[in-house]
Each structure stands twice: as structure tokens, then as C-alpha cells.
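Changelog note: in this version the structure field was regenerated for every chain. One regenerated record is shown below for reference.
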Amino acid sequence: MTSFRRIHLAALIADWRRTLLSIIGVAVGVTVVLATLILKFELARPFDAFGPSLTHAAEKGVVQVTPTISGRLPIEAVDRLRAEVAGAEAVIPVVAGLTPVDVSGESHGFFLLGGSCQIELLVGSFDCERRAQDTEPAPGPGVPLQIPAVIAERHGLQLGDELRIPGLPPGSAHLGWTFQEFDRVEGINNGYVLLAPSTDIAANLLGSPGYATVAFVLPRQGAVVTVDVDRVIAGIATAGPPQPRQPAVFENATQSFNLNVLAGILIGILISVNTILLAVEDRRAVMGTIGAVGAKPIRLFVGMLGEGAVVGVLGGLAGVPSGFLLGKYLVDRFGQSMLAGSGGAITTHFTPNLILIAAAAGTVSGILAMIGPAVRLMREGPLASMTSIGGMHRARRIPLWPLIIGSCLLAGSVVVMRIFEHGSLPLNAGINGLTVGLCGVVLVTAWLAPRGARLAIGVLTIARPAIGRPLGADFRRYTLLFALSAALLTQGASSAISSHSMQQLGAKQIGEEKADRLPASLLIAAQSVVDQRDSQIADGTFELVTGAADGRSVSSRWRSTIGSGTLSRQVAGVTPGDWYSRALYEPTNAAATFWQGLRDGEVGLSEIAASRLGATTGDTVELPTVLGPKRYRVAGIFHPQMVNDAAVGDIVLVSEGLARSDWAAVRDQVAVDYPSATDATTHRGEFLDLGAGLRVYDNEQWRSMATSGISRFLEPFTIAGYVVMAAAGLSVLNVFVLGLVQRKRERAALRAIGMTAGQEQAVIVANAGLLGVMVAGLATLAGAGLTYLWSLGSPVFYGIKIEWGVLPVALRTGVAAVFILVLAAAVYPVIHARRLETVAVLRSS
């Protein structure tokens, strides 16, 4: 410890300027890591209401029974659990769902929760029994619900006010009670909870009468109930610890956010390593001398890694405030829009864990940044290090292995995504395929950029020797730093270009789906396009819709979900072969036979579902139902023609009656046919005026909402790419400034023999321009390639094929951002280049 303090800590303190720059570099990376994780955590928090948050007051050992058909646990199964699980102290069924609620003319997300007063065993006591017996609900339309008093006060709600839930007819519910024990539900959807008096009332509001969403089994002290629970629920549900229920699109986003976290750590490494490389080079002779007089190489190696850890921890802690502020901005700017319509309430929480995460991420960045210089110092030995006085004298060359490994990663990502496109690989494989492709881009860029720059410098030297020769000398000295900066900039730029491209391609293609497939109809739903919630159009609302349709053809789609999250499989029920079903789903062959099969009780499979089930036309497949597994004959394979709100590509298509009987499906969309698109638009207002909170789409409205719907899920990744680029701009600035400081004596000598300040400034500008040209060219190619990979995975990620294309707007924006950042990074060095006292520097040297 004494030697570490005398050698390593003393070196960090003595070279405090570079240490500070290294700390700042790590802090920039940690800022990105924390901000991304904050957005990721807050997006997931509302969905914890289905498990972890709901059971926060229960003792350990709670078993959550989750039905295989999402939200459809038969009440008969709950009764059997109570009767046959001897070690259970209580079996608590709950009916729950996230839903927006219109209150006082504004929409807010709430967690609608219904159950008996046994819920107090899960969330804590709130005097449920007394309220149920002694307190009459306030009069009002429909069934009475209660919310926390603090939420009612926040939004000016009064007892008796109507609460409108989209999809339910007017007068379905009102505020009957409030309760003061806000702390019992504060962690459940940020306290935005609607309590229904019973499971039956909640089930009627959510369209699932006869079913519970989940059940919780509380074991007696010392009892083991798992075996009995598994026996009772075999075939219809699974048991385990409380789990969230996150929609598939947010599971996809979670994986993408993990990629941004890795990018943040990489930012910290690449920015800080620039400074560390120069600092270690200046200390090579000293470290070599220490090794020559007897210090063990392994102790020096560990000590240098300790330096990296110290820099990393300090940088991590320094990144906490900026990371939290950036995370808050991302939550407010993007989190709100991503959760809009889902019923989730989102805000930013600061927890002590963020400090630990920042310190850990910073430590990793610092250690990894130090590994390269430390390994080289130990490998070359003390004698070689002692002879390298004065910094980096040898020309750096990038070895061949980054090109080989990077090319293999790129080829592998294409192969993985081509297989993933058909659904035969798990969802995580698609995200990992994109990650592998991006890593390949980084490695190939690190090899190609210096070689391309060397060729360009040769041309510049012929044309302008006064600029080309000093630029070439600088480049040979700082080749590694140039390669790392180019790789970081290309990573951010290609990510931004690909995300922006997919955002525009998806918005354009999905926005035109209705006009292409259902031009003369109105589509009616209880939610916006790709809102992530299980909405329904209740029977009472459907009667209002058919009345407003005034005899025109009306058709419905019914929806249920097998599984959840990344394993979601959607069951869609339609009237086989009618105008609406033919527009939504297109059989791959023998359409008449396909639709007849569905009328006869067979099932149709999307290409994704068929691949995962290993089935084709005429095969028999086993599918879970509300009453257990059943076998069905496959009528054929089909391609979805319009995006579904769940954004799931794994779809089973059945007749309306079969969807309702075997999967307890709810009506989620209605289509009304009109003679022309103009007639449809004319009658749109009649359905909006029904007061049921419906979304009614003609062609223009669909185009607008589909564009915003797909954009809100992709825009955060575009911005994340530009954040990485901005951090890379700091890395470039770091390189330019450190180069000026490192070469102060050399610059003074050149000035003494006739080089002007203007020529030195021209060298810096040429260096910046060269880096910008290399990165812009490589990022354009990489962005187009990543867009191609992303489009391959779109049938699985979004439930619809987004055709690949190269969009000039995304390319121009990305390239412009590259040059703006690089040239901005050169401004200070260009100004600083004039501030050189030649005589004083030469005398002091």
C-alpha cells in the first residue's frame, strides 16, 4: 500500500492536469451509462405493479401464479389452489391492468386493481374491512372506485366525479372513495392506483369476467407449497416469485438500452485512454528505472491498474449529477411519450444504487483504459522503457487482427439476422446480432481509418508539403489515438443514422398501410397505434358503434396473448374471409382453403409463429388455452399486412368464436366500411362523439398516429447515438489539446526554423477535416449496414416487415453532425496554437 501511494498516487497527483482530464473522460461515459439506465429502470417500473411492487409488504416466500394465457387465470383454478394447497395461509387472486383514465378532461395512467380485503396482506393495511362495511361510496354513474386522497387532490378530483376508461361506454365508473394511506401504494405505478371493490367488478371493467389476472399464494411459516401449486396449475399457469409483466416492445427496448450502457462504458474507456496513453508514455522512463532497481513487474502492473481504478471511481462519482440530470431529461422527453397510452405513470427517482452503479461503471472504464499501457510496459521490460525518454517516438501501427475479427463479426451478424428474420431464434438473439454488428463496425473502423488517412495525407503532402509533412508526422505519432477517436465517432454516427433511418422508414411504410389495405373504412380502437396495453371495446360500446355505423358493414378483431414479454404470442380472432380479415392478413397460398380451414376450427400461423413451432400447412400443433393445452390443425401460413398494437410478429389467427372460447379474447378493434375514403372521413366525428374514449382512424389520422407511434419508440435510440457522438467530440478535443501540449518543444523548434502559427493552425484544421472525412464515409456505410440488419429483424421486433432503404435525410443529418463536432473540437486548439513562446520553451527545455 505504501509503494502504491508513493509511486502511483503520487504520479496521479503530480500530473494532475492529465488525471483531471482522464476523470472527466470517465465521467462523460458514466453520464451516458447512468442516463440510459435511469430511462430503462423508469420505463420498467410501472410494470412491476403486476408483481414485485404489488407484494412489497408481504413476507418472503410469496408464490405468484401467472396464467399461460396472459391475464386469464380461471377462478376455478383459484378455488382449487385454496382447497388443495394445504400449506397456504392465503390464496389471493387479483384482477389488474394498466389503463389511461380520463379525469377532469385530462388523461392519466392508472393501475386498476380489484380484489378482496386480503390485498392488505400484499400492500399493507389501509383499513379495508371498516371502509367496506361502514363507509358508503359517494353516488355517481357506474361502479364506485377509490384512489389515494393525495392523487385526487393533485388532479382536483371530487367524490362522485365520473372516471372514463377508454373502450367502456359513458357512465361506467366514478370516484366513490379516497384513502389516506398513500405509502401503501406509492411504489405501485407511482401511486396512480384505482381500487375496485372486488375482483368481479375489476374483471368486468377490464373485459375478463370469470378470470383473475394473477394469484398470490402466501405460505404458512416453514411450509413449502411449490409442489402442490405446480400440480394444481399444471397446463394453465406457471408459479414462481413475483414478476413484472412487461410488453414485448419494452423488452426489445431493454436490450437496446443495454447496448447503450455498453457504449457508455466504451466512451469512458476511449476518452480516458487518450490521456492515459500520453501520461504513461511520459512516465515510461521513470517506471523502467523503478523496475530496474528491483520492483516486481507484477506489482507495477497491479499498481497501474490501481491507478486506473482510482481514476475510474472518481470519474464515476463525478458523473452522477450529470447522469441523473440527463436521465431526468430522457425520462421527461422520451419516457413519457413511450408510455403514453399504456396506463403507466413515470417519473424520475434518485436512489443510492445509482451512486454504486456509477462507481462500478467508472472503475471498469478506468481499469480497461489502463490495461493496454500497463501490459505494454510490463511486456517490454525496464530496459526498453528506460530508453524511451521524451514520450512517444515510434510510429504506431494498427495490427491486422481488428480487421479480421471485425469482418467476422459483421459477417456473423448478417447470418444471425437472416436466420432471426424468420423467427427461429429467440428475441435476444436479434438484439445481440445488432450488437455484434456494431462491434464489428468499431473494429473495422479502427483498422481502416488510419490507412485511409495515410493515403489522404500522402496526396496532401504532394499538393501542400508545408501542411502535409507536419500532419504526417503528427499522424504517425498519434495513429492509435486517431483510430480510437474515429472508432468512437463512427459508432455513435452509425447508430444515429441507423435509428433515424428505421424511424423514417417505419413511419413511412406503416403510415401508408391503412390507405393501401383499408382505404374506404374507419378503424376504431380504444388505444392509439402501438400503445402498449391490453385494451378492449366493451359490448356496450360496440352497440354504440354499430348504431353509429347506421347499417354499414361492421367487422371486429379479437385479441388474446399467450405468454408475455419476449415470449409473447398473439391470438387474433376474425370473421374468416370477410373484407376486414383479408385486408389484415394475407395467406401465402390457397387463400380460399385457408379461410375455410379457419371456419372449420383450424388455425393460421404467421411465418414467425410457424418457424418457432416448426409447423407448416396441414401439420398439427399444440397450443396453450385457458383450460390447458389443445391440438389444432394448421390451415396455412400468412403474412400480417398491418402493424398490431402489441408490435408482435408471432401470431396465431383463428375464427372469432374460437378466440373467445379457447383464449377468452376481447374485442380490440372494429372496422366500419364506407363507399369511399371521403365518406369515411365525413362520418369520423360520429364515433368520436360516443363518449367512450375511442380512437377513430381515417387514412390521414392513421398516417399521423402511426408515424408518431413508431417514432416514439425509435427516437430515443437516435438521440442516444448523437449523445455518443457528442461524447466522441470531447475525445477528439482531448487528442488535439494533448497533442499540442505533448509536442510543445517540437513545435517551438519548428517555429524557430520558420514554421508559422498559421501553418500550425492549418495542420490542426487539416487533421480535423481528415478525421471528419474518414468518419463520415465509414459511418455512412456502417449506418446503411446497421439499418439493413435492423430491417431484417423488424418482423420479429415490430410484427411487420420494414423494408430496407437508404434515406438521404438520415445520412445528411449524421454526416453534418460529424463535421460539426469535429470542427468544433478543433476551435480551441486552433486558438491555442498561437499561444507559444518559442524562446521561453526552448530555454526551459
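Spot check on this record: The chain is about 60% helix and 15% strand. The two ends are 35 Å apart (CA to CA).
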